[in-house]
Design goal:
236 residues; alpha+beta; Glutaredoxin; Glutathione S-transferase Yfyf (Class Pi), Chain A, domain 2; 2 domains; disordered N terminus; disordered C terminus
Length: 236
């Protein structure tokens, strides 16, 4: 029943930025949950049964009912556990639509070229994907300016939906920099987003979620899965 916190279980994979998004939402909303690490080379029956269409993580299971796809899961958490904490999505319908627009932008324009940097087989390919990522970050900087209205987060004074979505990428910023040689949150290029990262990593929720995603482990993981890349740990 919406609004009641019953059994909550999260199926995920430690390196996935999409899993990190869901964990962030649960911590921000102060929802207790059981985390189950999945081996995506030997997927559990629970995962296959819970997400029969994609067979991928993350999957949230609330009171025995599975919810799939990161954005859908986060919106569900925001509504199902409303009494547990501040709403992530704005109450105003227009502001909510704007947040969903930029959410789609992050997943359609920022993440794909950023992930392809890990899959690139040549320096030339990596340079092209880096160029596309920088272009996407320029637009996202403007999006942050408009959504934050001069405050610290996409959600204003408090963390919101877009902060959670982009926040899942934060542990991968240094590994991507080590692999590509590029800092996509460079303060000289995107000062607002660079300052946002500094504020975000200082949040209690971020500290709790990111503690197992250290730079060296993520770099090692990225090199192991090349050229498949992040697709092995995303929603597919």
């Amino acid at each position: 029943m919406a609004g009641e916190i019953n059994e909550v279980k999260l199926l995920g994979m430690w390196a996935s930025p999409y899993m990190a998004r869901v964990k962030l939402a649960l911590h921000i909303k102060d929802v207790s949950y059981e985390y189950v690490e999945e081996d995506l080379t030997n997927k559990s029956e629970l995962l296959l049964r819970s997400n029969p269409v994609r067979n991928m993580v993350p999957v949230l299971i609330h009171d025995g009912k599975p919810i799939c796809e990161p954005q859908v899961i986060i919106q569900y958490i925001d509504e199902a556990f409303a009494p547990a904490g501040k709403a992530l999505l704005p109450a105003d319908l227009y502001e909510r639509a704007v947040a969903r627009f930029w959410a789609a932008y992050i997943d359609d324009k920022v993440l794909p070229p950023w992930e392809m940097i890990l899959k690139a087989k040549t320096d030339e390919e990596r340079a092209e994907w880096a160029k596309q990522t920088f272009g996407a970050m320029d637009a996202l900087e403007d999006g942050f300016r408009k959504c934050s209205m001069g405050k610290g987060f996409f959600g204003g004074d408090d963390v919101g939906y877009l902060d959670v979505l982009l926040g899942g990428m934060v542990p991968w910023l240094r590994p991507i920099e080590k692999i590509s040689g590029h800092n996509f949150f460079d303060a000289s290029k995107v000062p607002l987003l660079a300052a946002w990262v500094e504020r975000f990593v200082d949040l209690d929720a971020a500290k709790a979620v990111f503690q197992e995603q250290d730079v060296d482990s993520l770099v090692e993981f990225a090199r192991m899965v090349q050229p498949v890349g992040m697709a092995t740990c995303s929603v597919g």
